């Protein structure tokens, strides 16, 4: 079983909003005292929140599906439905949130930073909130909106001040164990370290964190070995320490060659990063060189031999032994100075807690009406927009009065006028909403009439009476008949006019454009 997980996919769903209530208050000697149906509660949201006590994403590896609580239904006597409880997902500091396409949605840095992954649905209005002068006792209520659904990828980028990089078995794990209280797995074969290790180092009054990144090999920035999976853990580090093995027995390996290879990989990986917040590229950050394993006789001689060449590169080199702790004190204090300098130069905005909350429901998108054709060549009119789509989701289509109220809202918004301009006629097919889940109905221009025509029982609308409603073919036939009748009437008038039945002695033919 994995103990460290730094990348997971989470499927989040916000809670559905509660339905509104349609209720009429009844009192003694006053059976119909007005509507008293209350609104439904808001659905809970799925929220990511940085927690300093969490260091891994293992919990979401085993349980990737998370859903927030639904809102309660509204009730009579003005009893509002309860709001759904938010689901808080604790994540480590340095968690990056990405969508399916790999776009960064949030970079959670700082204790308490939050990001709303899936917002809860809004509660539906009760009939008490829908009442008006013309609609005094609505026999319907609005439905609650469904919560948002989102699939995101969480990637953990370790928040460490110092990063130890180098070839496998260069002694990075031994070095971090000697400098801090961390106890990573240590062995003498390649790729012993399969996960990054973190340790805390105390150098005088300065405390900083140090990360042991799994071994890099040539081509790591292109996906070879384990490097690409863990290179992101050094993106936030202030200082990069090259740990070079001075006692390697592999052919073709020496400290200078290893240094050149690792620098090339960091430079190649740095070019693919989109750095923000004033952070500098990896290959431009402060770097130190640690010549490890000088406790081996040949290792000490090789370290002394390559140290001048490293100095010519502008890098400071330290000869240490993780086994005997030789040179570690000087190294720890030198790293502390670099860390303090970087912290002083770091922009203040990077240290502040930034709360990122996405609220897509707050962004109103104007509606549009587009004339389209389906796979069979039949024409339809596609309506898209924030308000029309939300109103459709809130409508109970089993209640004729609710459907009539939807028609009134669409007419007030201007959808009726846009359908006329787009060429829609009575009986035209209209679709509202996304293509995969749209609401389809036959358009009736007469539905633009308002609530003053509501004279039937509550929950009904005379405009939707099936016994009086013509079919789509009937409405199209009536439309074409009216057009043909108008054309025939015009032709008859012009025929009479040309035959002289409209002759007036006071006018000549020139007055009629003849």
Question: Over all CA atoms, what is the radius of gyration?
Answer: 36 Å
Strand order of the largest sheet: 10-11-9-12-13-14
H-E order: EEHEEEEEHEEHEEHEHEHEHEEHHHEEH
**Main β sheet profile:** 6 strands, mixed
Q: How does the helix and strand content classify structurally?
A: alpha/beta
Average pLDDT score: 78
The count of DSSP E runs of length 2 or more, i.e. the number of strands, is: 18
Overview of the structural elements:
By secondary structure, the protein is α/β, with parallel strands linked by helices. Helix content is 25%, strand content 19%. The chain is built from 11 helices and 18 strands. The protein has helices spanning 58-62, 127-130, 172-179, 227-230, 255-270, 297-312, 328-345, 386-393, 400-413, 415-422, 472-498; strands spanning 7-13, 46-50, 65-67, 87-91, 95-98, 104-108, 114-118, 149-156, 162-165, 197-203, 206-212, 239-245, 287-292, 316-319, 368-373, 379-384, 429-432, 439-442. The strands form 4 sheets. The protein has a 6-stranded mixed β-sheet, with helices on both faces. Strand 5 and strand 6 form a beta hairpin. The longest helix is centred in the C-terminal third of the chain and has 27 residues, at 472-498. Mean pLDDT is 78; it is low at 186-193, 219-227 and 348-362.
